[in-house]
């Protein structure tokens, strides 16, 4: 499942799910296929995983959520979709970074604006550590 997410193999993911594979298995870093797809900018796969019910609030070994991955790589369409599904914008990872901080690091102003509209604060103290 992770390999399919990394390579954008949507047909493989759909086949695995139709045969009963779990949608949220984790790798050694506790990353889900959704996180891997987002990290590798495979938007079609990420979108399908979200629509199939992937856990949008899952956290990896570093406390990062799928929303943080999308902000880090600057994937506005996936950020928009995650926000549509009510992804938590106030979570902080283990080093204290939130999704909005990841968007600031990637320099994507559109994502920053969207996160603020969805309740994120530019002040890190309003976030919650995971």
UniProtKB/TrEMBL annotation:
Spell out the PANTHER family in the cross-references.
Answer: ANKYRIN REPEAT AND PROTEIN KINASE DOMAIN-CONTAINING PROTEIN, ANKYRIN REPEAT-CONTAINING PROTEIN-RELATED
UniProt source species:
Strombidium rassoulzadegani
* Gene3D superfamilies according to UniProt: Ankyrin repeat-containing domain (1.25.40.20)
What PROSITE patterns does the record tag this protein with?
A: ANK_REP_REGION, ANK_REPEAT
Q: Which Pfam families does the UniProt entry name for this protein?
A: Ank_2
| ANK repeat residues | 1-28, 29-61, 62-94
Coiled coil residues, start to end: none
Name used for this protein in its record: Ankyrin repeat protein
Instruction: Name the UniProt key words of this record, in alphabetical order.
Output: ANK repeat, Repeat
